[in-house]
Amino acid sequence: MITLDIVGKIVSGDFSGVIIRQKTGVDLELGELLVTREDNDYFIMQIYDISYGSQIPERIRSLAAGLKLEEQSNLSFIDDEISNFILVSLKPTLFVTPNRYHLPKRLPKFFSTIERITEADLKFLEKPNQPLYFGKIRSGSRVLDIDVFLKGDDVITHHVLISASTGKGKSNLVKVLTYNLLNESYAGLLIIDPHDEYYGRTKKGLKNHPNANNKVIYYSTSPTPGSNTLVLDIKTIKPWHLNGIVSLTEAQLECIYLFYNRDREKWIENIVLAENDDVVNTQTLAVLKRKFNNIFGISSDGNALHFRSGLFSNNSGITTIQNVIDYLQNGKTVIVDTSKLGGEVELLIGGIFAEGIFSKYKDLSSKGALYDKPCVSIIIEEAPRVLGKDVLDKGANIFGTIAREGRKFRVGLVAITQLPSLIPKEILANMNTKIIMGTEMSNERSALIESSSQDISEESRNIASLDIGEALLTSTFSKLAIPLKIPLFEDLFNQKVPYKEKTIPRGVDFD
Amino acid sequence: MADLHLGGWREDTLREIGIKSFEKAIDISIEEKVDFILISGDLFDSSNPTIDVMASAARKLYQLKEKNIEVYVIEGSHDFSPTGRTILKVFQEAGLLKKVTSVDDVDGKLRLRGIKDSKTDISIYGVSGIRGSLEKATYDVLDRANLEESEGNKIFMFHSAIQEFKPSSLAHMEAIPISYLPKGFLYYAGGHIHDNGEFELDGYKNVVFPGALFPNNIDELLIFRGGGFYIVSYENDKITKKYVSIKIYPVIILEIPIDGMTSFSIEEKIKEITLNKDFTDSIVITKFKGKLEGNISSINFKKINEYLEKKGARLVKRDTRELILKEYKEVKNISFTKEKLEEDIISRHKDQIAIKGCATDTIPFVKNFMELLSREKKEGEKKDDYYTNILRDSLEYLRKLKLLGGLDEDNLS
After folding, report:
1. pTM, whole model, 2 decimals?
2. Which of B99, B110, B199 has the CB atom closest to A315's CB atom?
3. Distance between CA B411 and CA B413 in Å, rounded?
4. Which secondary structure element, helix H or strand E, spans residue A436, and what is its range?
5. Residue A442, class by beta-carbon neighbours within 10 Å (0-12 exposed, 13-18 middle, 19+ buried)?
6. Would you tell me which residues 225-254 of chain A have a C-beta closer than 8 angstroms to some C-beta of chain B?
7. Is the torsion defined by CA of A386, A388, A392, A393 positive or negative?
8. Residues of A in Cβ contact (< 8 Å) with B105
9. Three-class secondary structure of residue B114 per DSSP
10. Tell me, what DSSP letter sits at residue A206?
11. How many Cβ atoms sit within 10 Å of the Cβ of residue B394?
12. Is the CB of residue B71 less than 8 Å from the CB of residue B64?
């Protein structure tokens, strides 16, 4: 029986691609999801290519086109709609039975009719425990009212890569992901925010979530009232925090460790204050002083230390690292505004917090207490700055270590980048969930396709054509690559906010 | 000054030293001819101290009044009461001190009125501290802009730990961020942290915690041994701070290593290490360390105390926390946070009980159940309701975990 939903019929193909003839009057799009039914079962297939087909030899078609263009002829083909048509290439992505769903291991029946997918066809996608929300399923540019969740704990600890060209909606996606995570308690989030865009200092942001008071902690060098000043006491900085972030020679490293082993927490202070040292070359000391001046903004006039910026201090922020670690292991979302910091300092700060939580979780693991705490995710923008091949070749840094070992200790990365090809293949492969947004550059698409959890080798064109807010989700924890539409962050606020009881101010006297 | 905690110790001697410290601080202030005194919370250890403590405080405050030295105060987490019925209110009505925490509600924002000191023209504002950092709600709606824009020299008094300045030993303490306070004041007089410290951060100069005037517990006695306050002068646009240490009696810590010793040999050891020491008018803390052969009751603490008192000690207190008793296993990885300490204790003892059919792990179960049972009575909640609610919540929790199976629930209460 022919219904209005029928969009075509299978006419040829093989396992790498099923070709259908598109029904006249129907407009199918790249990336659209289609189904073909067999009794109670059905295949879900996705469009990866569209081409023309015709019964009429090409020379006749060219001649007819020429006559129409040059002679203003009214010539037309007999049964035009039958003779000329559109061929659509589909990739079978899932086979669904009433009891289960899995990757297809056979082809749908030849000449089967193909329909557009409906919400009912995707009802088997359930909301898991510890859900992580990604958006709604998209079929081409049509958005289906099916929310996409994966098990958040798994996804987070096995790292996430978010890739997109500029302006494709990365920030919106991260806001949506993190905003929805504020409803959950299974994960702590550390967001290194170089654009100060997630907290919502001047517009809506995570601070506007109904749970923000209890869950969102904001650190900034210029804090808003009620938020924390991003300040670190230099006594809490350890030499290994500089690993892979600050470029240091062997001699400089030796000097640093000499001071650290001798003076412990006063190592930075004593290097900066040292006039000369019996065992350290004066030139090495001078270079280190200059580097510390650049990184920590610290200098001396011989007797006293001077701090150029408020970021580092010698009498404030002694508990900052400890507090951030505590917040994260209590499932809070810590946003660190690094917008006013230089790139190297930003990574140093992010690295210090990342190292702190990673060490803490390694320690918990050795005590068998790892699963008493929520997992932790570290969101890092422009990830190749710390995970790029050239950076890692110069020496390991904490982000590289977490990318390789974090899963064992329930600490994951969310690496955001426009240039995934700069990240080594083994690290890309370790990122078990990828949210791929519009990416025009073919080498970047190749890097993503080659390292994806699903076979998306036919999706290259699709990825190139993704519009703002459209994405393709591939994950070890999903049986299929899911086309997504990410909702607009601002639209989340149209949802009804639960009534919040007004807190009574105390500690002051009303008449 | 701050954190005087008058009336705070159980022992008469220490309670009296607390009051003497206050008296001495006031005497020094009068001698130094201060213009006014700021007390940043916890003048008293409770909102309703004993008559003797109130009388001692009133006598000194009256002396200040006679000398025309104003006393500006805020309440602290100890002497605050949500009902407002505190001794500070009585003293304020009697003109012995002035609270600087009056506010007006202006379009949903709290506008502090402040008090302008008539001698110096300095305006003083403040927000009291409340247990559990509940004052945060007040800072959330505080009209900071109005405070920052108001003319003249200004002082802000607060009784809260500040996140950016709290010492590493108090890393887990509830604190407020400095950004809650208005910027650009001349001086920020802090309380609540019992250690003294001076801090500065962008927009906030002269943030000062004087610390306690006298230690408030044995740990503080061990660490600080005394207390103090600041005398601050402001001349030619320059602030000068002088910390004045207050020590009524010396605090002497007597470390007694007792590894492998018997009760008798401990007494001999004490005699040996105190042979040439002078304990006149001192507070002695005996700190026992090491593994004890035998039971703790085998140590004759009374005899040791008497011996030290004979050598002149005013008071002997003992610290046995580092004493390892034979009948207990050595505790590894000592935890310093309340939460972790609880977890460790539950974890060590959890195998002693079997919670049959309990769907959850022992640690979260015990912690949740303890939390239910330790809930404090809410403001306005009747005593009977409080008991009934605790019982109801506890039963509901046990029922949820299916731990009431086979029991007659109606008769449980």
Report:
1. 0.84
2. B199
3. 6
4. strand A433-437
5. middle
6. 225-229, 231
7. negative
8. 510
9. coil
10. G
11. 16
12. yes
Of B74, B138, B201, the CB nearest to A316: B201
Give the pLDDT confidence of A98-121 residue by residue, as tens digits: 989 999 999 999 999 999 999 999
Q: Which residue of B has its CA nearest to A236?
A: B168
Q: Do A510 and B105 touch (CB under 8 A)?
A: yes
SS3 of residue A263 by DSSP:
helix
Give the separation between CA A261 and CA A6, rounded to whole angstroms. Answer: 75
Domains of chain B: 12-246 (3.60.21.10), 251-325 (no CATH), 338-412 (no CATH)
DSSP annotation of B261 reads B
For residue A392, give both structure tokens.
């890692």
Distance (Å, whole) CA B60 – CA B55? 9
Q: Report chain A's mean pLDDT, rounded to a whole number.
A: 92
Q: Is the pLDDT of residue B370 over 60?
A: yes
How far is the C-alpha of B334 from the C-alpha of B327, rounded, in Å? 18
Query: CA dist B41 to A433, B52, B110, B176, Å?
Result: 53, 20, 20, 16
Torsion of CA A421, A422, A428, A434, to 10 degrees: -60
The verdict on A368 touching B (C-beta cutoff 8 Å) is no
Chain A: give the shortest CA distance to residue B51, in Å.
25
Q: Where are the beta strands (DSSP E) in B183-270?
A: 187-191, 197-201, 204-209, 227-235, 238-246, 251-257
Give the integer Cα–Cα distance in Å for A466 and A486: 12
Dihedral of CA atoms A358, A362, A363, A368 in degrees, nearest 10, equals: 140
Query: Which ipTM score applies to this complex?
Result: 0.84
Pairing of strands A101-102, A84-96: antiparallel
> Which residue of A325, A326, A508, A510 is the best one to mutate when testing the B interface, meaning the one whose CB has the most B CBs within 10 A?
A508
Contact status of B99 with chain A (Cβ, < 8 Å): yes
Nearest C-alpha of chain B: how many angstroms from A429? 36
Residue A249 is encoded by which pair of tokens? 């020679």
DSSP for A112-167 reads -EEEE--GGGGTT-PPPSSEEEEEEEEETTEEEEEEEEEEHHHHHHT-EEEE--TT
Most confident range, picked from A73-77, A305-309, B180-184? B180-184
- CB-nearest partner of B201 from A229, A504, A505: A229
d(CA B110, CA B274): 59
pLDDT of residue B48: 87
DSSP A88: E
Integer Rg of chain A from CA: 28
What is the rounded radius of gyration, in angstroms, for the C-alpha atoms of chain B?
25
Residues of A in contact with B144 (CB under 8 A): 225
Residue linked to tokens 């932790």: A376
* DSSP 8-state secondary structure symbol assigned to residue A372: G
- Which of B129, B139, B166 shows the shortest C-beta gap to A226? B139
List pLDDT tens digits, range A181-208: 999 999 999 999 999 999 999 999 999 9
Closest CA relative to residue B225, chosen from B212, B209, B244: B212
Q: Do residues A441 and A168 touch, judged by C-beta distance below 8 A? A: no
* B273 DSSP 8-state letter: H
Q: What is the pLDDT of residue B234?
A: 96
- Chain A 397-416, residues with CB within 8 Å of chain B CB atoms: none
**Burial (Cβ within 10 Å: 0-12, 13-18, ≥19) of residue A462:** buried
Q: Do A225 and B101 lie within an 8 Å CB cutoff?
A: no
pLDDT in tens, B74-118: 999 999 988 888 999 999 999 999 999 999 999 999 999 999 999
Restricting to B residues 342-361, those with a Cβ less than 8 Å away from any Cβ of A are none
**Closest alpha carbon within chain A to B81:** A507
Q: Of the candidates B136, B168, B363, which has its C-beta nearest A318's C-beta?
A: B168
